Amino acid sequence: QVQLVESGGGLVQAGGSLRLSCAASGSAFSPSPVDWYRQAPGKQRELVASITSGGTANYAGSVKDRFSISRDNAKNTVFLQMNALEPEDTAVYYCNAALLLRGGSGSRYYWGQGTQVTVSS
């Protein structure tokens, strides 16, 4: 089954760190960028960080200098290292990526199932 599998969320105190993982299962990442989004209760889903196939990263202003996105292309996995966490970072975090279709017929975007990050004050 082709899917994105996320892991690494949890409960942490303010100032703490977490590392999220997003692994492609049953396929591989396409050359398109891989994105991390988050959605807090009552708010719209927002883009947090993005990384190209070559490793160029971009961040939302609210997480820049605290979060770091990276990837291991050999393992088809993208990571989001989150440091100096704040209660405002509490949300469900999702990865979004285009995975290759079988037979070389292109790619399709998938969402992960989401992983809960809760930061207590």
Write a structural description.
This protein has 121 residues and is mainly beta. The chain has no helices and 11 strands. It has strands spanning 3-7, 10-13, 18-25, 34-39, 46-51, 57-59, 67-72, 77-82, 91-100, 107-111, 115-120. Strands 2, 4, 5, 6, 9, 10 and 11 form a 7-stranded mixed beta sheet that branches. It has a 4-stranded antiparallel beta sheet with strand order 1-3-8-7, with no helix packed on it. Strand 5 (46-51) and strand 6 (57-59) form a beta hairpin. It is elongated and about 50 Å long. The chain starts with a strand and ends with a strand. 30% of the residues are buried. The model has no long low-confidence stretch (mean pLDDT 96).
Question: Would you kindly provide a brief summary of this structure?
Answer:
This protein has 121 residues and is mainly β.
